[in-house]
Amino acid sequence: MHKAVDRKMSDPISRKRFLRLCGSITAGAAVAGISGLALSKIGKEGGTFWQIDPAKCTFCGRCETDCVLAVSAVKCVHANRVCGYCDLCGGYYRSNVKDLNTAAENLMCPTGAIQRKFVEDPYFEYSIDESLCNGCGKCAKGCNSFGNGSLYLQVNQEICEDCNECKISRVCPSGAIQRVAASKAYILKDG
Amino acid sequence: MNRRITAVTVATVVAYLGIIVIWHVYSPDRNIELQNPGADERPPETARKANDVRIGEFFMRYEETASGLTGQWPRFRGAAASNILQTSAPLSLPQEDYPELWEVSTGEGHAATVIHKGFVYFLDYDESLSSDMLRCFSLETGREQWRRWYRVPMKRNHGFSRTVPVVSDGYIITIGPQAHLMCCDPVSGDLRWAKDMQAEYRTEVPPWYAGQCPHVDKDVLVVAPAGEEVLMAGIDCRTGETLWQTPNTPGFKMSHSSVMQMTLHGKSTYVYIGLGGVCGVSAEEADRGTLLWSTSKWQPSVVSPSPLQLSAGSIFLVAGYGSGGALLTLDRQGSKWTPTIVEQYKANEGLSSEQQTPILYNNMIITVIPKDGGSMRGKLVAYPPSDLHNPIWSSAADERFGLGPYFILNNHLFVFKDDGELYVYEIGSRSLQLRKKQRIMDGVDAWGSMAYADGRLIVRDAHHIKCLRIN
């Protein structure tokens, strides 16, 4: 044993052997990188994504607090075709609101992500500023207590890290977060 | 040394001043925007305040289910306003529990249901939306069909909702906790008409909100706004047009009691217990709306039960909160009516009730004695109309029911204890026998009246409505 070690240590690596070794490492890294990229692309296009089933979601609020991202990848989505365009919107105004106006103290959304525009009395068109949405689901809960549920939550696939095991899915009390085919990455209420 | 101290002091002061200046001048985030009123570009003329009520303005349909059922529980105390129902199908009293068909959550309150051709209706109050909400459900599935609502902010006061609607082909009419009248199409949910009794009649809403249930007589809604000028009014159910009004000459105010129609000495009469006394208004075409008689000899501060006719010339009156019962007799000489309170007594001295209206059945007045009823408190009792102080029978010592509702179906008395337990008794002429007992829910304040149609019984507590298959 001592003898073998001594021989190995005593043989200096030749230049040719060194270059061959570097070449092998470089080629291996290139193959591994290309394979990884290819697999990643396959994951995005032909694989599956995490998504929320609106029919199962209970708006518990964990999407906001349990996503690995600093600001959750879960965002509120608005289905205009489902919306009642109500003035008194349970997703827009907080409970027991005093005045039906856009002052911050009257609004359900803690970040001001839901905006609305007057259409005609008494109808308003609602929209979501996704850059402000933190996925808390308060608006969706309020809207669903109305009953039509035009506000609901979805994972934004552009932001989602697509973790192997979604941290939100581990704590979701209703099992609403599930893997969906990449070809149907969103479960939309208005098609 | 002194120069050094001075330099340090000056430097410290300058540093602090610098921090203060920077604190006020520097904004850590320049993207902050104030969220002010007007961002939705709402025209000023459409601005809304909390008390700006537009009755029936919101509507949502969820399903459109057809039903082949024909049963009816169309109003407070059923079709005959008696809380008694006789059906052709024999009553089922199985050993096992009645199966629960469906359940819905409600806003906190006591408003009970009506049933019309396979659909269940009640006037809920949604606290999150601060809204009175007429909701329609399928009797068979319990699935919500539609709801119509309007914003009317108020504070909880032993719940919110109280009243039972009245429904018929072409209309369903509700009275909200703040005395708002709303009429809708029972199928489509379309708003037909609405009235604000506080605004129109200057009605003073009683403590714990309005409890009056609407009465309909030949497609004419009869309500007792008991406002400054109008005691009672007749309104066309289909159009909302006011057909007649009775001046409030007795000066009564609105109570929680409801208008009851009776034939007294051959004359059809609307009888109402207001805060201030009792009155009778003609229900006949020739002089409809005319005040026939009134008396202030019996005027409890709070009245929930409605008047109960005992004979052609006598009416049993009862109220809670220590008021007890009273017997009113009427003498008629032509057009002259003379009401007389022939006896009145405290709750612990005889037949009494705090919240539910007693039932007159087989020459017995059946009720639950209130908590101030002495040793009989909470017991189910029956008294003969001729003796309001000595009961014919009473329930067992451990069968006490609080403020829960009761009604009679095929000679069986269904009593819903206010903690959510259902009792079924068979009524005898001298006794009653417990036939069935079932825990329906861990109930809280189950005070709303029951409704029955097509073999299905509907009960509620302060937060839930349940439908049972009992026949």
Q: Key terms for this structure?
A:
heterodimer; A: 191 residues; 2 domains; two-stranded antiparallel ribbon; 5 helices; elongated; B: 471 residues; mainly beta; 6-stranded antiparallel sheet; 35 strands; 39% strand; globular
Q: Overview of this structure, please?
A:
The complex is a heterodimer of chains A (191) and B (471). With 191 residues, chain A is an alpha+beta fold. Chain A folds into two domains: 2-46, no CATH class; 49-184, no CATH class. Helices cover 31% and strands 17% of the residues of chain A. In chain A, a hairpin with a 2-residue loop joins strand 3 (114-120) and strand 4 (123-128). The longest helix of chain A is centred in the N-terminal third of the chain and has 32 residues, at 15-46. In chain B, strand 9 (166-168) and strand 10 form a beta hairpin. The model of chain B has no long low-confidence stretch (mean pLDDT 94). In chain B, the strands form eight sheets. A six-stranded antiparallel β-sheet of chain B has the order 1-8-7-6-5-2, with no helix packed on it. Chain B is mainly beta. The longest helix of chain B has 24 residues, at 2-25. In chain B, 47% of the residues are buried. Classes of the chains: A alpha+beta (191), B mainly beta (471). At the A-B interface, strand 3 and helix 4 of A face strand 8 of B.
Uncertain runs of chain A with pLDDT below 50, 5 residues or more?
A: 1-8
Straight-line N-to-C gap of chain B: 103 Å
Q: Strands across the major sheet of chain A, in which order? A: 1-6
Poorly predicted spans of chain B: none
Largest contact between chains = A-B, 29 and 31 residues
Tally the helices of chain A. 5
The percentage of residues in β strands of chain A lies in: 15-25%
Please count the helical segments of chain B. 2
How many beta-strand runs of chain B? 35
Radius of gyration of chain A: 26 Å
**Element-level helix/strand string of chain A:** HHEHEEEHEHE
Instruction: Give the overall pLDDT of chain B as a whole number.
Output: 94
Relative helix content of chain A: 25-40%
Strand order of the largest sheet of chain B: 1-8-7-6-5-2
Distance from first to last alpha carbon of chain A: 72 Å
Kindly name the structural category of chain B: mainly beta
Q: Radius of gyration of chain B, rounded?
A: 28 Å
